[in-house]
Amino acid sequence: MEIFRKYFWVILLTVMVGIAWGGILLVSNKTFSTINPNAENYTKPLASKFDEELLNLISEKTKDSFPVLPESFFELNPED
Questions:
Q1: What is the pTM of this model?
Q2: Which residues have a Cβ under 8 Å from the Cβ of 31 and sit 6 or more positions away?
Q3: Distance (Å) of CA 20 to CA 9, 13, 24, 30, 53
Q4: C-alpha 17: how far from its chain's center?
Q5: CB under 8 Å to 70, separation ≥6 — which residues?
Q6: Distance separating alpha carbons of residues 67 and 43, to the nearest angstrom
Q7: Which of 29, 69, 71, 75 is found 20 to 30 A from 11 (Cα to Cα)?
Q8: Which residues lie closer than 8 Å to 69 by C-beta, 6 or more apart?
Q9: Would the CA dihedral through 62, 63, 69, 72 be positive or negative?
Q10: Residue 78's pLDDT is what?
Q11: Cα separation of 24 and 22, whole Å?
Q12: CA distance 40 to 58
């Protein structure tokens, strides 16, 4: 009980600072957070279905244009 009486003001001040800090963070997040009105345009998919033909075309162009194929990097260490 002696320790509590000795440090009562420190504990009280710490709790008050913590409550004030939390309140300021809560108010500032609600006040200063803005959502871009065009955010929905960035989150919706470009196409409604997955275009596998386009993916195959890109894969073929990759194989034709790179001097070293990306798959060869996975085969550098055969122990793994």
A1: 0.39
A2: none
A3: 16, 10, 6, 16, 58
A4: 30
A5: 62
A6: 35
A7: 29
A8: 62, 63
A9: positive
A10: 65
A11: 5
A12: 28
Question: What is the pLDDT, as a whole number, of residue 71?
Answer: 76
Q: What is the pLDDT of residue 12?
A: 93
Q: What is the DSSP string of the chain?
A: -HHHHHTHHHHHHHHHHHHHHHHHHHHHHHHH----TTHHHHHS-SSSS--HHHHHHHHHHHHHH-SS-GGGGGGS-TT-
Tokens representing 24 are 């300021």
For the chain, residues with pLDDT lower than 50 are: none
- The pLDDT of residue 79 is 65
Cβ partners under 8 Å of residue 42, min gap 6:
36
The sign of the CA dihedral 51, 56, 59, 60 is negative
Alpha-carbon distance 73 to 77, whole Å? 8
